[in-house]
Amino acid sequence: MLSFQLEQKFGTIPDPVRHRIQNADSNTLLRWSGRVLTEDSIEDVLR
Question: How is the chain split into domains, by residue range?
């Protein structure tokens, strides 16, 4: 779901970012999913 959200907002997701998402735990994914709503870059979402 997070990958879909990021693609909708920012376009193509770089492979290193996709790898980070695939290896993240559920708490981290939840935190990042919330940040998609407010942040202006993928880097800010994944900080």
Answer: 2-45
Of the CA atoms within 13 Å of residue 21, those in its CB half-sphere come to 19
Residues 1-41: tens digit of each pLDDT: 999 999 999 999 999 999 999 999 999 999 999 999 999 99
Counting Cβ atoms within 10 Å, is residue 22 exposed (0-12), middle (13-18) or buried (19+)?
exposed
- The CA distance from 24 to 38, in Å, is 20
Inter-residue contact 6 to 42 (CB < 8 Å) = yes
